Every structure is written in structure tokens, then in C-alpha cells.
Amino acid sequence: MKKYFLMSGVLLFLAAVTYAQPVVLTLRASYHESFLRIVLEGDESVIEKRLVYQRGNDVLVSFPNTDFSVRTETENIDYTKMGQDTLILSPGEFRGLKVFTLKDPSRLVIDIYVKEKKGAFAPLAPGRKERKAAPALARSVVIDPGHGGYEDGIVRDGSKEKNTVLDIARKLEALAGSATSPSYLTRGSDQFMSLSERVRYANSRDAAVFISIHIGNHKGIVLYTPVITRQVSEKIMPFVENQGQAGYTGESMTLLRAMKTAIAADFGSDMASVMPMPYSVISRVGAAALIVELPSFEDADYTDDFTTAIANTLHKGLYVYEEIRTQ
Q: pTM of the entire structure?
């Protein structure tokens, strides 16, 4: 009798496995100035298992021991399934790729730096509407490492804020500069710059995004938002050289949402808090602008791995900002 029930249980289990519906992953893609972005969206438990490989001119995406199907969103993307748990993407010749995940909803993002914009998309199916590719940020990204020169910022056990934030800013510049827009540092060395000089520099570079990086005296990451502190008549505003945040508060709030999303994905949802900051450099910049104040020297070990992780998270925030803008 025990053998009978055991055999019945095995058969029921096998039947359940046999007739289980495959997981559905939504696949979409968009061209940017120098890379092709491919996004796979689905259940978080599946996305977390992803393994991404390069094989020649193909990109292999595997979700081990997961039977999945693919639903394309508006475009037919050139891909093939290999077995039950692997997807082969064929973008043509490319020179590198970057891979990261996002949450809410859970997504695997693969940025493929293609040599030519050929071969990434199959012809559109009849009756389908072509999805508009997310535009690149035509303007620049300006990264502002706080302090510098005789202004050390916070100093703890030989570590100086001015040097640590410059290291992070350089890493972020390298990441942002390899993607859609030129990126600039307000200071590239240990030099003093006044707030007015930083504002003028950012506005002279036609910044789309301005991020000022600092270290604070707290455990988490504080995102400071700009506050308009001087109102100008609407008749005069078009003739004012530096309009500051007057026309950019919406974009700054979008950048705030994007950075919070990236920080939550990498460090946890409780890591970021938000505070307004009037009379600051960001209030006078004509771009989406934030001050990012990182954890204290006591609460974080600013090793090379940690500063690289921070730079990657801020870079992810720029990607999310771009994604939100084009929705």
C-alpha cells in the first residue's frame, strides 16, 4: 500500500512538472547612440538566476532549470531559443556589453555596444506598430566631486572626502562617457572651485544631468533636491542668462526617482532618504540636478570595490532616468 501511494505521488509530481506552464518573459529593445539596449522583464525569482555570456557575435542568456517562453513587445527581435532555459540574441558585431538588473518591475538589462546598427531586429510583423527607440541624452552629464584644494571636506583617519568623491566621480565619468552622452567633471584634480564656478561650468556644458557627490555623517545615502529660492517675472525669465531650476524641477524629481530605484536595487530600499536643499549649487543649475551624500567614513569602508559599486549604482540611476523619461 505504501509503495502504491509513493508511486502515485511520483506520478502526480511528474504530471505537474510535465504540464506546468512555462514562465513568460517580455523582451524589448531600443537603439541608443552607441549601444543597443535589450530588456527582459519577468518574475524576480527568474531574473535573479540569469547568466549572461558572450559567444562570438551572439549573447547567450540562460535561466538555469527554468522553462520559459518569450513575448516580444512591438518589435520582432532577432533571437532563438536553445533548449528550455537559454536564449540566444544575435545583434551582429559588437565590441562589448554591460549587464545589470532592476526591480519594480524586475528586469534584466543588457547594453550591447554594437559596431554597426545592423542585424539586431528582424522585420516588423504585419500590422505591428514600431516602438519608438528611447532617445539618447543629447546634452551632457556633468559630475561634480565636492570640495577640493584647501577644502578637504570630512576627514577621518587619514581619509579625505575631497579625494574619495573625486575617485568615485572619475569612475562614474568613465561609465557615463562610454554610453549615450558626453560626460564632464567640474574638477578633475585636487583643485578648489567655488559654487559659482561649478554652476557656470555645468551650464556652459549644456548639462542634461548634474550630480554633485559628497560624503556625510550618516549611515545611508541622502539625496538632496534643489529648491528654487528666487522667483523672477515670467516676462523677464526668457532673458535671464542663468534660469537655474525654474524650468527643471520636474526633471530633477524624475532623476530623484531614478536614483532611488537604482540605490534600492543595489543596497536595499531603506538605504536612500530625501531632503530639500535651498541655496545650493543644484538650485542654480539648468538641468536635472541632485546632490548625492554618501555614508560616513565610520559607516562605510571606502575600498576600491565599494567606490566602484557606488559609481555603478549612480550610473544605473542615469539609465533608469533615461528609461523613465521615454515612457
A: 0.62
